[in-house]
Give the backbone structure.
Amino acid sequence: MKEIQGELWDYYGKPGYVVLITTNGTVKANGEVVMGRGCAAEAKRRFPGIAKTLGELIKWNGNTVFEPVPGVYSFPVKHNWYEQADLLLIAESCLFLKDRACATPEVTYVLPRPGCGNGHLTWEQVHPVVECLPDNVWVISR
């Protein structure tokens, strides 16, 4: 894992990069996942329909990592939108990302600090969980 500073969306669409957005598992009655704050809200504005697509994926497969839009992966940090981020869920998301990143070393995965911000965790709490990620995973902060 490499720590960088910058803007997450500067990497979207660049060849060889995948952007990850932190998400939760709350699917509303209309079938959309809650994407109300942070990079999830930014993704919802950029990609009409992403909330519905991700909601369907979560409904049928559970709250795990998906690619709802080409070049954008979800990275679950919460079970419900109103809860604090869950370090165990972040660890599970990291396992998936670690496997994917190791299998595709030519791709760089750019992830905001998971669970920090609206997840109400500190980087000091989260860092030990994500430090297992390989060097082609960049954790970005502004």
The chain has one domain: 2-141. The domain at 2-141 is CATH 3.40.220.10 (Leucine Aminopeptidase, subunit E; domain 1). The chain is about 30% helix and 20% strand.
